[in-house]
Design brief:
Elements: H1 3-8, H2 11-39, H3 42-59, E1 66-67, H4 71-82, H5 99-116, E2 125-126, H6 141-156, H7 160-184, H8 188-196
Antiparallel strand pairs: 1-2
């Protein structure tokens, strides 16, 4: 293992990244609690809960077998993880019924995180390769749930800031998928898995 890889996996880096993520999450959670008290939209609490799961599983993730030391992978991973925490509740949305998308997306997100368990990663890394549960349907079920939840959120909490956060998050997510697969595909087991599960996010489409 290279010196850079060892540094990136060091306890100090993990603690610092965990503290920073916890602070950003705290601000995010506080804003959504206030939003719920003003609007009584349960979808705000559900969205907050789903993002809390992401933060929690990141903090208690397992140690990777390999991890990318490419600076681009780190920028994309950090941007993709932190950007959604800048969503903020709004008093108006162009499609209030899109709350259904948040509920459905959060449900799939919970199932995906349970399927992934402690193999959750921030940066492109190889841990235990998961092929069961939601991973039998698409290769990135967690990211698929993000797409659904984020879209529903923007449609029910429509502001220019939220639209920008959504677009940035989607760009990061798409790039992240390809970067992660490039790293994990170095493992023959993952290549075999890719041959069995053809679609990344949406069955029969992508």
């Amino acid at each position: 293992m290279s010196t850079l890889a060892e540094a990136l996996q060091s306890k100090r880096v993990n603690v610092c990244s965990g503290i920073f993520l916890a602070v950003i999450w705290g601000i995010f959670a506080y804003a959504h609690m206030l939003g719920f008290l003003k609007t009584h939209q349960w979808s705000l609490l559900l969205f907050c809960f789903s993002e809390t799961l992401v933060v929690t599983f990141y903090l208690f993730r397992s140690r990777p077998k390999t991890i990318s030391v490419n600076p681009l992978d780190w920028i994309i991973a950090i941007g993709g993880t932190f950007t959604p925490l800048f969503f903020r509740p709004a008093l108006w949305g162009i499609l209030p019924l899109a709350n259904i998308a948040i509920i459905a997306g959060a449900f799939f997100q919970i199932l995906s995180i349970i399927s992934l368990n402690r193999s959750f990663a921030l940066v492109a890394a190889k841990r235990e390769i998961k092929t069961g549960w939601m991973y039998r349907i698409v290769r990135h079920p967690l990211y698929a749930s993000y797409c659904l939840v984020f879209l529903g959120y923007v449609l029910t909490n429509t502001t220019l800031a939220n639209v920008l956060v959504y677009l940035i998050a989607m760009v990061f997510l798409c790039i992240r998928i390809f970067r992660e697969e490039k790293h994990i595909a170095l493992d023959p087991l993952y290549c075999e898995y890719m041959l069995k599960v053809h679609y990344r996010l949406i069955p029969y489409i992508f």
